Amino acid sequence: MKHTTTDSYDEAAAVDVITQVEQAMETMMHNHNGNSHTSLAEQRRLLIANAAYTRIQGNHTNSTSAQDETEEVWDLVTPCDEDIGELLECIQNGESKKEKEQEQWLAAIFVMQTCHIRNWRELANSDATTLYQTFLTMNKHQLATEKDFESWIDHAQEKSVFEIMMSILDGDEDIFIVLRDLLKSGTPKDLVMWVSIPNVSVQEINIRASIAIGEPLVKKWCHRAQIALNTYKWLDLHITHRFEQKKT
User: Fold this and answer.
1) What would you report as the CA-atom Rg of the chain, rounded to the nearest whole angstrom?
2) b vs e for 159-197, b when ≥16 Cβ sit within 10 Å of the residue's Cβ?
3) Among candidate residues 226, 225, 219, 167, the one with its CA nearest the CA of residue 195
4) Spatial separation of the C-alpha atoms in residues 209 and 205, rounded to whole Å
5) Are 198 and 185 in contact (CB under 8 A)?
6) Low-confidence residues of the chain, pLDDT below 50?
7) For the chain, which end, N or C, has fewer CB atoms within 10 Å of the first or last residue's CB respectively?
8) What are the pLDDT digits (tens) for 187-221?
9) Which residue stretches of the chain are H helix?
């Protein structure tokens, strides 16, 4: 039996990845030419938005009791769909931005293939050191530093927080904006703080946003927020004030 050396394997793998990059870029250019009124970045945003909407819809579950919405069976599941566009956005928004688009695609494809990270929700749950060591062990190419991975994960978590909040709120973006902008409760960590005083949040929302809601609904949101915090420990680090500081 003929054995393949490590060097020849790495070379073949590199050629395969580069081919995939070229094909992916050609596909994007083809789609762009077919719709000249939409930029490549806008097409990518639309694809990502559609994927996020699908995930939110997929997290809906039935209540065990129509009388008490806090007793519902609700679970937050990490999506397993492959979305190279999401990984690409995280890489493009990293602290040390890669200038060449081909380098961005190479990094995204290696993250997906070598680290088995399929989308930004999986990236958000990852550990930078572990991913970086896997990166080095499997391909030897210095496409990213550990700090790169940290910044990519940070961006993935910011994106994931919004998706998780939308899932908690059954996709109601108007309510999310009210919670984030008026009550400074745009993350599960913030939202769960209302569990002991749901009547106060109800009054604030009803008065300041002119949206009629009841205490059972707020309790349901708090219940879901706690499940999210128990599922993803990194959510403890994300509060609305932190996001506001990063924007200023």
Assistant:
1) 21
2) bbbbbbbbbbbeebeebbebbbeebebbbbbbbbebbee
3) 219
4) 5
5) no
6) 1-11, 32, 36-37, 63-67, 245, 248
7) N
8) 999 999 998 888 888 888 877 777 778 899 999 99
9) 6-34, 40-58, 84-92, 101-114, 120-124, 128-139, 146-168, 173-181, 188-191, 198-208, 215-231, 240-247
